[in-house]
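GTPase HflX
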Amino acid sequence: MSSASASSSAITPVLLVGVDFGLPHFDAELEELGLLAQTAGMQPVARITCKRKAPDAALFIGSGKADELRTLAQMHGAVEVLFDQSLSPAQQRNLERHIELPVNDRTLLILEIFAQRARSHEGKLQVELAKLQYVSTRLVRRWSHLERQTGGIGARGGPGEKQIELDRRMIGDAIKRTRERLVKVKRQRSTQRRQRERRDTFNISLVGYTNAGKSTLFNALVKARAYAADQLFATLDTTTRQLYLADAARSVSLSDTVGFIRDLPHGLVDAFQATLQEAVDADLLLHVVDASNPDFPEQMAQVERVLQEIGASDIPQILVFNKLDALPEERRPSVLVDQYEVGGQLLSRLFVSARSGEGLDHLRRALSARLLAAHEDMTPAGALELPDALP
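Structure:
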């Protein structure tokens, strides 16, 4: 995404495009795509949506709508077009030729944000692997200039297959090397986990949709200084700290993990397996939900899909409905602790405000109850059994 490089000081004006195929989670306002664009250092200057029964094989949106995009981009001064859905390499190439502007999709936008935000050696390796896997499918559009190369004594050259194959081998080698380095990181994490297991540590992982407030909650619970901001993907690297629970007179291991998002690229799920392993190996998941977001049920469903994909769907959960302070008075719950059905199962739900601290005492006591139950080998299969003192 050359025009959206993190090193660029100028903000890139972009045109946002969404196509409604009749799916329930279609974002008619393109709000999330706009937030992603802003997080990557771009400025949405126009938005357009359309309805289709199926994607057009060549241009995804059809030639008529592509003409409209080109006119709209010129009118608003956009220098790049962003699609809310994933584009095939051929569709992306054809759109760029038709619109005469760089065209990118949601997948590359997320990869770009991850590349900007990764801080640890492991996080950078994981992003590098995901981007290499993505680029490897799109080599044909990068070498179109070779189709008219000339060689020899006035002889006309071929369409650049040799250069493409060379580049493909180079990327394949880079993918192999990156995977080997990630294997070493996984071994190190595995050693650390075994050490925690030998110390009989109870492991809790924070999971949830991006920008649900996981890092703010993590900081509030363990008095840490992990980076937290009101933006998408503020945290990419897993941070683990010890949390002392006074009611249980014991400590637990608490980990803050990367946030999930709708249509998370499969390459990222694979590449971030080492980071997400913290969730897979947890004894308890704190599923943090942005209670102030009206689309929280769909966001919860997306998180559950990713948990299923990484093999963490059977781990016991407590639902933590965060941002209680952002709820209008008419939407505030009458009690801070109740139950909520997820996938046919009743789970314990606690309302908290990580920012103001409201409800955190209830959460600590709930964690103590689960820790004591686990220590006595009496963990219930369904909803959390909370202390009688809680409402």
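The first helix runs from residue 31 to 39.
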